[in-house]
Amino acid sequence: MIRNFRTNKSLYKLQFNYRVSDVIIPIAMSLDDEYTYLSIVAMTSILENSNSNTKYDFYILHPLIFPIESKNILKSFEKKYKMFC
């Protein structure tokens, strides 16, 4: 389950809830509006093909001026993968 979606100026953190036995791998991605969909594809592939004991923290770096549409795409991704983590 996704625990939170934090914003701190130009950093988003998609963080999932974990069990103590889980392996946690942090992944940082830097993107702008044109790379939002490509980043979603990469994160989807990671989550869909991961071991059930491997969990991920995604750190998304973006420009300070980041379109609301792109933010909404990231939030929708987070909502969709609550059941996977």
Task: Write up what this structure looks like.
- The protein is α+β, with helices and mostly antiparallel strands.
- It has one domain (2-84).
- It is 31% helix and 34% strand.
- It has helices at residues 36-48, 68-80; strands at 2-8, 11-16, 23-30, 54-61.
- A 4-stranded mixed beta sheet has the order 1-2-4-3, covered by helices on one side.
- Helix 1 (36-48) runs parallel beside helix 2.
- The longest helix has 13 residues, at 36-48.
- It starts with a strand and ends in a 5-residue tail after the last helix.
Q: Give the number of helices.
A: 2
For the report, how would you describe the main beta sheet? 4 strands, mixed
Category from helices, strands and their pairing: alpha+beta
Total of domains: 1
Q: Which sequence of strands runs across the widest sheet?
A: 1-2-4-3
Radius of gyration: 12 Å
The global form is elongated
Q: Which residue ranges are poorly predicted, with pLDDT under 50 across at least 5 consecutive positions?
A: 1-5
Proportion of beta-strand residues: 25-35%
- Can you give the helix content as a percent range? 25-40%
Mean of the pLDDT scores?
Answer: 78
Distance between the termini: 5 Å
Q: How many extended strands?
A: 4
Q: What string, H for helix and E for strand, traces the elements in order?
A: EEEHEH
